[in-house]
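## Example record

The block below lists the input lines for one assembly entry, exactly as stored, with component labels intact.
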Amino acid sequence: MRIALLGGTGDIGEGLALRWAFHTDHEVLIGSRDPERARTKAEEYETELDSRGVEVSIKGFENGMAADRADVIVLAVPPYHVADTVEAIADRLDGADVLVSPATGIRRDDAGFHYHAPSAGSVTKLAADAAPADVPVVGAFHNLAAGRLADLDADLGIDTLLVADDEDAKETVRLLAEGIEGLRALDAGGIANAPEVEGITPLLINVASNNDGMHDLGVRFE
Amino acid sequence: MRIALLGGTGDIGEGLALRWAFHTDHEVLIGSRDPERARTKAEEYETELDSRGVEVSIKGFENGMAADRADVIVLAVPPYHVADTVEAIADRLDGADVLVSPATGIRRDDAGFHYHAPSAGSVTKLAADAAPADVPVVGAFHNLAAGRLADLDADLGIDTLLVADDEDAKETVRLLAEGIEGLRALDAGGIANAPEVEGITPLLINVASNNDGMHDLGVRFE
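Predicted structure tokens for the full assembly:
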């Protein structure tokens, strides 16, 4: 399968790109608003993988070009760029594509980090509202610590939660997620259930910052 | 230590009562608005523990009487009874007591279960607002499945998150929580961080109801 990581030059995009390239046979494309930056990062990822004995081609493109070539498009951009990123690639999408939304809204105050939902209710819903009606959106990969994901020496042993209103699209993303060693994908229901899923991310930061020796946390349902 | 479980005749109260009586030397008191009901349930818990070779005295009282006798008072009541329960026992409390709030607001719709915060922002904050100014409140035990907790044959192997603005009170509850075998207590910061903690509960229900073979879920941070 061809996976485009839009915003694939950022932290979470890097982690997902490296993991998919390392653990699976999927073809990974890096997207950025700046195609030169996408190509530079793609080469960095190739070098990192090559140093681990994995010879793989990772190509960088402007976001629209990456989306055009891919079956699954991950919106690995900050929450405030989700809607405009989807709108910028909308004419490259069709009903055979799957959009994946891993972003979450976070607000910080003196006490800690808090879930800050956009007015759509969740970032996943924001992406779904911006997407063409026939293109399914799946919320996933919200609660993965980027540093741990990008460190191919780090064991995961954690879960990621999926929310979607299209069961086929959810299944596609479930298989992609479980291709990553140590990652278990669990179904958290429809997009209406996204706020509680996205809200785990600030909680993980709060727990890590209040307990000695805990960092880059993930979550496991047992 | 003496622990009063107000609403200790309900599911989560039963689980905590049995676990503390089974795993620790703390004295457990059962509180209810109806003292006769409290005494009946206390006897049931004694019988259950006796069948497992644990001889322990558990007494039942009207909520105010239970609170009066205890060092730590757990508000194991539905969220809409938290404020009136605290107000009803307020004159029995002093600065040496610790109140514990395990309740969470949950709303159900067609998609699943959602966190429904009271206007105070969280149920823990609601309890803190209702409590006398010198009585510390700790949010804890939100994400424990009652059935699993009350089944002394069930392994836990899960975490509970603590939120409080009083570090001494938080430490008291941390020690109580970790007295329960298989339960790890993690610090999630101040009461302002309670919404994300309380929001795990509806998420656990959504995950359990959407994945075959998962039920009575807890969460572990790794």
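Chain B has nine helices and eleven strands. The first strand of chain B starts at residue 2 and ends at 6.
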